[in-house]
């Protein structure tokens, strides 16, 4: 690294430390509070083997629902941005449109699941986070970093994000009303007045020993920070469960989201100034769990995701440059676990059927079928072993196998060394293959991406502290990148050869139980050193903005009535663009009511997460929440 680059980074880090110190000085430590979730006892929600968090040998980070609801965030997208190694790039605030990736991968290389069911979109990763899951329904968010094909199958190339919803424990009724503003006029259109955001959420749950239900409806509106960036979203989420008997249960989930937004600069700036997009997504899943014997467990699941995407390049002229896409993904899987005295065996089958009907991609369908097995044992003294493989068949790309292993060696009761290695695959999306637009064209000759990764780490766990520090090396073969030679030709994807990444990451969660209080600090740092092979003279559409440095410092606090949180993030990309963001939440709880106030981006930083879209500066939110529950 040359001297100017070092000075640049040092200056940015000094600014970050000064601002963080300012927040800490102003922070009311007497209000630190209690987190009711013990992460050490959480069972990682893998589909076959059940592994406690403190015994897992992978790089897994968990953000509990309690932590999520204490953060100064308004939706799932914003919560993901506080997870170490996760790169959340928003094209618009309030959940309008966002891409998510892990450890320098692309937004198509990260698998997203809800309760273990895959929700990634076969058309494009741009729609993956079009999910209507309210924060009040989240039990925890699990992030598994590194190739996860052995666990979750295809498309978990750089990792997986599994959103686990809350089990229903009691009947309740709740309502949440909130509004926010930058208290500034909208850019480019000052005559339209103050930029604002408003929303409401209502929900109810019904609990009985035999069956349980919960339903949420959410409405969000914004007039847009800039010209043609207003947004309007409706979200519905329903979850139910049935206890058949002690050994057999069922659960089901249904959701719908209508998301309409001005897309000025979202995909093809500056020509898309008048663009508008409407995305509707329906997702449903039905699963059951069966204990057939004292040692044998069976879990079938079916799920379906249907999306309609209406992209209007000229919102006032639908006769030209309009793209209509209708895609569907149906999945069926069967997972099993058999426990023995010397270890646990996992076995599963799954099939996924993808289909698209598009005005500029045509009509296409394909299917993917997988068989996978795992074995885990702790019978060797101080050593835990997990090995397995996933055998995949895709109707476009044929047969492939993805093995992997995890090893853990206990140095002491608190310290553990881990080593894991594995391979995975990413199948090109329909957009990669068939898109036919003026500024972007697909490539039906693409191969699937294949990755291999190895990671070594040390873990520490005791009553107050959970820590992880590790180094990984990843090599992606047939890496897909969208490139072009000049601004007057369209972008097109090609298999660019290899994409290699060296990475270091560390995360510490520290908490102390005090008198009616818990003191908690969550710190993380992520460093990536990518080597992207790209022919000279070409411009990459996405990878120029890959993260290089990422740091976070979260403080969440609560007494019986007061709660306060401070969240700090620093991101620097390989282009040297960087920004430091600080957000604060203060809340006060009364019987059945709570009031909260957020100040986001309190230093009013100007920054861009993706494309050419400036994100909002300093933002204030005020909300009131009501809940009645029958315990």
TrEMBL record:
What are the residue boundaries of the TonB-dependent receptor plug domain, all occurrences included?
59-160
Q: What is its main location?
A: membrane
PROSITE patterns given in the database record: TONB_DEPENDENT_REC_3
Which keywords accompany this UniProt record?
Answer: Cell outer membrane, Membrane, Receptor, Signal, TonB box, Transmembrane, Transmembrane beta strand, Transport
According to the UniProt entry, its GO molecular function terms are: siderophore uptake transmembrane transporter activity
Domain (TonB-dependent receptor-like beta-barrel): give its ranges.
Answer: 194-602
Coiled coil residues, start to end: none
User: What is the protein's membrane topology class?
Assistant: Multi-pass membrane protein
- Which superkingdom heads the taxonomic lineage of this protein's source? Bacteria
Its GO CC terms are: cell outer membrane
GO biological process terms, semicolon-separated: siderophore transmembrane transport
Q: Which InterPro entries match?
A: Beta-barrel_TonB (IPR000531), Beta-barrel_TonB_sf (IPR036942), Plug_dom (IPR012910), Plug_dom_sf (IPR037066), TonB-dep_rcpt-like (IPR039426)
Q: Which Pfam families match?
A: Plug, TonB_dep_Rec_b-barrel
Where is this chain's protein located in or outside the cell?
Answer: Cell outer membrane
Q: Its family?
A: Belongs to the TonB-dependent receptor family.
Put simply, this protein is called Iron complex outermembrane receptor protein
Native species: Sphingobacterium allocomposti
């Amino acid at each position: 690294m040359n001297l100017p680059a070092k000075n640049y980074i040092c200056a940015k880090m000094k600014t970050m430390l000064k601002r963080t110190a300012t927040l800490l000085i102003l922070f009311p430590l007497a209000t630190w509070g209690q987190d009711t979730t013990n992460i050490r006892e959480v069972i990682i929600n893998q589909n076959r083997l059940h592994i406690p968090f403190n015994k897992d040998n992978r790089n897994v980070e968990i953000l509990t629902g309690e932590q999520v609801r204490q953060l100064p965030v308004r939706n799932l997208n914003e919560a993901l941005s506080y997870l170490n190694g996760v790169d959340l790039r928003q094209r618009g605030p309030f959940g309008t449109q966002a891409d998510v990736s892990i450890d320098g991968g692309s937004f198509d290389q990260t698998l997203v699941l809800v309760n273990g069911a895959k929700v990634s979109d076969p058309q494009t990763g741009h729609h993956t986070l079009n999910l209507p899951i309210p924060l009040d329904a989240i039990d925890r968010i699990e992030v598994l970093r590194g190739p996860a094909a052995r666990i979750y199958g295809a498309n978990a190339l750089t990792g997986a994000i599994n959103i686990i919803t809350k089990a229903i424990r009691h009947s309740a009724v709740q309502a949440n009303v909130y509004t926010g503003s930058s208290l500034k006029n909208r850019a480019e259109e000052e005559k339209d007045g103050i930029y604002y955001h408003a929303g409401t959420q209502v929900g109810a749950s019904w609990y009985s020993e035999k069956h349980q239900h919960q339903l949420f409806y959410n409405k969000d509106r914004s007039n847009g920070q800039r010209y043609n960036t207003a947004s309007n979203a409706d979200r519905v989420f329903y979850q139910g469960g049935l206890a058949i008997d002690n050994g057999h249960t069922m659960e089901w989930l249904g959701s719908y989201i209508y998301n309409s937004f001005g897309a000025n600069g979202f995909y093809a700036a500056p020509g898309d100034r008048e663009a508008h997009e409407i995305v509707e997504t329906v997702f449903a899943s039905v699963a059951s769990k069966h204990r057939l014997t004292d040692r044998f467990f069976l879990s079938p699941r079916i799920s379906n995701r249907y999306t309609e995407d209406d992209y209007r390049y000229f919102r006032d002229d639908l006769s030209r440059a309009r793209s209509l896409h209708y895609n569907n993904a149906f999945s069926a899987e069967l997972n099993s676990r058999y426990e023995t005295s010397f270890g646990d065996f996992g076995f599963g089958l799954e099939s996924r059927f993808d289909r698209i009907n598009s005005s500029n991609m045509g009509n296409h369908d394909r299917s993917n079928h997988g068989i996978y097995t795992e074995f885990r044992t702790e019978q060797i003294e101080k050593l835990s072993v997990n090995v397995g493989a996933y055998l995949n068949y895709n109707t476009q790309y044929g047969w492939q196998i993805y093995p992997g292993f995890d090893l853990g060696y206990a140095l002491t009761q608190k310290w553990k060394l881990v080593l894991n290695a594995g391979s995975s695959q990413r199948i090109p999306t329909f957009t990669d293959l068939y898109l036919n637009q003026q500024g972007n064209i697909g490539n039906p000759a693409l191969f699937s991406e294949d990755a291999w990764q190895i990671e070594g780490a040390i873990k520490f766990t005791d009553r107050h502290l959970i820590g992880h520090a590790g180094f990984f090396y990843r090599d992606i073969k047939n890496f897909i990148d969208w490139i072009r030679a000049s601004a007057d030709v369209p972008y097109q994807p090609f298999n660019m050869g290899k994409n290699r990444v060296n990475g270091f990451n560390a995360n510490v969660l520290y908490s102390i139980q005090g008198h009616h209080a818990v003191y908690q600090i969550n710190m993380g740092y992520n460093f990536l050193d990518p080597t992207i092979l790209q022919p000279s003279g070409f411009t990459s559409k996405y990878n120029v903005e890959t993260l290089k440095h990422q740091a976070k410092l979260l403080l969440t606090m609560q007494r019986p009535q007061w709660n306060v949180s401070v969240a700090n993030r620093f991101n620097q990309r390989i282009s040297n663009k960087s920004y430091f963001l600080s957000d604060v939440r203060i809340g006060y709880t009364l019987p059945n009511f709570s009031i909260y106030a957020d100040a986001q981006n309190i230093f009013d930083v100007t920054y861009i997460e993706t494309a050419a879209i400036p994100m909002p500066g300093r933002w204030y939110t005020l909300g009131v929440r009501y809940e009645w529950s029958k315990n």
